[in-house]
């Protein structure tokens, strides 16, 4: 039995907790919030034996095996270091932190202390994404030549809430643009060139972001994210001898279609009753059982590479946050 803690009790924490309850070898053992009342209410809803009204008090809970960090982006760096320095393994929500400098410090701390750390990019462990990767590695569409992926929804303009609040790391790129960028990195690695453009909200964060990436093998990825319009949120992978379509919403998809240039289509379905966070939770528990300090499927180097891509896109469009003031690669 793996005993989980959750730090930060917003909407995504509820989804993660719900999925955790479906796993017979997992127990939600402790939760922490900045509000004692919120922590108590959350604990009562999910029958959690320990709850705390301060994040640092989670470290006093004996018997915890791993902590899931579900705070806003701007807190990921500090909260991950809090847990790592307290000797607790960490699964931290994406984006891992606000910039590469912060991520590198998190990774260095975990590796120095030899404590498990992983970015919670749940899409990497979705059966649909795993299947698409397997099909590509099996050569079913030949060399991948192009990727087109999007993620967009209409978010209400609430300047004080996380989505548009610059002080909380708001903006479409860091929140949902990370998903198309993750897919391009997963399949093609780091690009040779990045071109990007954004439209800005009145609060100074991007409400839409478009990216075009080119690679050494004459490959291209066309990606976009949006808070102002609902897109189909599909992913298309174009190869020499066929295509792969990851059904919408592709980052949490329950289906993949293989479309060979010659021959019949094949559809692979992966129905589920959970939100889908159980897949990454299961992987973390497997890593812990095997004594690993990082995932072999989404490594800490992968997280460094992805945040460097996000930094490069932000540098291209001139999107800065307060956390960048101390960063050598992102300067005003």
UniProtKB/TrEMBL annotation:
Domain Gfo/Idh/MocA-like oxidoreductase N-terminal: 3-118
Originating species: Nibrella viscosa
InterPro entries in the record: Gfo/Idh/MocA-like_OxRdtase_N, Gfo/Idh/MocA_domain, GFO_IDH_MocA-like_dom, NAD(P)-bd_dom_sf
Family per record: Belongs to the Gfo/Idh/MocA family.
Alphabetical list of Pfam families matching this protein: GFO_IDH_MocA, GFO_IDH_MocA_C3
Every GFO/IDH/MocA-like oxidoreductase domain range: 130-244
Keywords for this protein: Oxidoreductase
Gene3D superfamilies in the cross-refs: Dihydrodipicolinate Reductase, domain 2 (3.30.360.10), NAD(P)-binding Rossmann-like Domain (3.40.50.720)
Name of the protein in question: Gfo/Idh/MocA family oxidoreductase
């Amino acid at each position: 039995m793996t005993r989980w803690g959750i730090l930060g009790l917003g909407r995504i924490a509820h989804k993660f907790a719900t999925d955790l309850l479906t796993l017979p070898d997992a127990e939600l053992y402790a939760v922490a919030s900045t509000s004692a009342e919120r922590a108590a209410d959350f604990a009562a809803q999910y029958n959690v034996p320990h709850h705390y009204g301060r994040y640092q008090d989670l470290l006093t809970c004996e018997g915890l095996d791993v902590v899931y960090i579900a705070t806003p982006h701007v807190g990921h760096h500090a909260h991950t270091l809090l847990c790592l320095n307290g000797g607790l393994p960490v699964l931290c929500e994406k984006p891992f932190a606000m910039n590469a400098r912060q991520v590198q410090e998190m990774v260095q701390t975990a590796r120095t202390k030899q404590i498990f750390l992983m970015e919670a990019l749940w899409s990497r462990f979705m059966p649909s994404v795993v299947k698409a990767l397997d099909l590509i590695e099996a050569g079913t569409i030949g060399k991948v030549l192009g990727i087109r992926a999007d993620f967009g929804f209409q978010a209400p303009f609430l300047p004080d809430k996380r989505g548009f609040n610059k002080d909380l790391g708001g903006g479409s790129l860091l929140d949902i643009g990370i998903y198309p960028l993750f897919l391009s990195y997963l399949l093609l690695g780091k690009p040779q060139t990045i071109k990007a453009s954004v439209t800005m909200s009145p609060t100074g964060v991007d409400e839409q972001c478009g990216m075009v990436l080119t690679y050494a093998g004459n490959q291209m990825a066309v990606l976009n994210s949006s808070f102002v319009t609902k897109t189909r949120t599909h992913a298309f992978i174009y190869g020499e001898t066929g295509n792969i379509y990851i059904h919408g919403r592709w980052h949490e998809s329950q289906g993949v279609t293989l479309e060979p240039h010659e021959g019949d289509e094949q559809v692979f379905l992966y129905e589920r009753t959970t939100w889908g966070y159980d897949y990454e939770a299961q992987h973390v528990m497997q890593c812990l059982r095997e004594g690993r300090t990082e995932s072999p499927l989404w490594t800490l180097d992968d997280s460094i590479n992805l945040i460097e891509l996000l930094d490069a896109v932000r540098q291209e469009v001139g999107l800065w946050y307060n956390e960048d003031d101390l960063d050598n690669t992102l300067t005003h």
